[in-house]
Automatic annotation (TrEMBL):
It comes from Spumella elongata. This is acetyl-CoA C-acyltransferase. Belongs to the thiolase-like superfamily. Thiolase family. Residues 2-33 form the Thiolase N-terminal domain. Residues 1-22 are annotated as: Disordered. PROSITE patterns: THIOLASE_2, THIOLASE_3. The keyword Transit peptide applies. Its EC number is 2.3.1.16. GO terms for cellular component: peroxisome. One of its GO terms (biological process) is phenylacetate catabolic process. Residues 42-162 form the Thiolase C-terminal domain. Keywords: Acyltransferase, Fatty acid metabolism, Lipid metabolism, Peroxisome, Transferase, Transit peptide.
Length: 165
């Protein structure tokens, strides 16, 4: 490739296999079931669990690899129970590492495209992932989905959602 490595000389992450910073806006509303009912709002899904982990900031991209198993355990679920994984691919290498390490079937990962295809609107990425996940779960007749991302300061986060039937 003629593209220069982004982080270190001889590295494999280039502008060609990394997400572009994009502009975007999204919103999610998290509320108690009783509050949503009182306001007449539809309930799309239930947040089953959430996990945040710390990793070495030099390899912050590996955060989802550690956050996903913790979030699944807290939800009382196994990897095989999950119908769709929305794993933010800030860089192709870090998303691929997570998928390979956890042995996630590729047909369950980012079925509508990830950040390399859709963009990475910093500050709105998690909401964008949820807004992509829930309709796709419904379309495919799925029940459980995971949203996960790395965080530039050396963290990883994952959430488990159960689609409201």
């Amino acid at each position: 490739s003629k593209m220069k490595p982004a982080f270190k000389e001889g590295g494999s992450t280039t502008p060609g296999n990394a997400s572009q910073v994009s502009d975007g806006a999204a919103m999610t509303l998290v509320a108690r079931r009783s509050a949503a009912a009182k306001l007449g709002l539809p309930i799309l899904a239930r947040l089953r669990s959430f996990a945040v982990v710390g990793v070495d900031p030099k390899v912050m991209g590996i955060g989802p690899m550690y956050a996903i198993p913790i979030a699944l355990e807290k939800a009382g679920l196994k990897l095989e129970d999950i119908d769709i994984f929305e794993i933010n691919e800030a860089f192709a290498s870090q998303a691929t590492l997570t998928v390979d390490h956890l042995k996630i079937p590729m047909d369950k990962v980012n079925p509508k495209g990830g950040a390399i295809a859709l963009g990475h609107p910093l500050g709105c990425t998690g909401a964008r992932q949820i807004a992509t996940l829930l309709p796709e779960l419904r379309r495919k007749g799925g029940k459980y989905g995971v949203v996960a991302m790395c965080i530039g300061t050396g963290m990883g986060a994952a959430s488990v959602f159960e689609l409201e039937q």
